[in-house]
Amino acid sequence: MKRKTAFAFLLLTIFAGAYCSFRYYHDSVLPDKTIDEVYTDQLVLFESVKPKKNVTFTASDPLEPAEEVNDAVVGWITIDGTHIDFPICQAEDNDFYLHNGFDGKYNNELGCPFLDYRCEGDFSGFNSIVYGHNVNGQRMFADIALFREQDYLQLHPTGALTLKDGEHTVRFFAYMNVPDNVPAYHAVFVSAADREDYIDYIFSEAVYTSGHTADELKKKDDLHLLLLSTCTYEFTDARGILIGAIE
Questions:
Q1: In Å, what is the CA distance from 219 to each residue of 42, 215, 216, 222, 223?
Q2: Which end of the chain has fewer CB atoms surrounding its CB within 10 Å, N or C?
Q3: pLDDT confidence band for 242 (50 / 70 / 90)
Q4: What are 213-227's pLDDT values in tens digits?
């Protein structure tokens, strides 16, 4: 009797182990493998259409190769020394590119960095907000969260924003760690007073600021801010926002 009980227990243990292995593969390994494949395909596509540096374009628009794949592309953001090297699209809402890739097709929720639909498509407004997912393995906008440490900003103080009129330097000066429903996500500013209040808000709520003061920025008549936003998971609906001035 004891031998039968031990044998039954052994079979139960084997079946339980096999089931757990199956669930782990189905729920963890297989999704990661799929995401790896999709992300690799995205990177190959990005590399084929990214703006080329230090070359003479046959056309005046450096985004032309990307526009041939998707005419909703409005820019390209690069931060040297990081994984941030992506096209920026803009849709009629802030939902489409949460789920679909640069080619407009569903890509397992990797999405594509996109400009808030309320912002000027040529980044000429006071505030331009770009969103991207934070995906395991430092994919998509995950590196934005690394800027929470000021030392990381010291190593990567600038980015390059390529628009239809050429490449612009973005000089980063602040990082915010905030909920997703805060005034940082305001995109429409009517008056100079509104813009000044917004600058004061950034400097009061930022984890840190560097290189600029609020008063310096207020004096700039042609100030154009760029916000790069991603999820960061420190608390419910946490967002990390890297903020720079477009030059």
A1: 41, 7, 5, 9, 9
A2: N
A3: very high
A4: 999 999 998 999 999
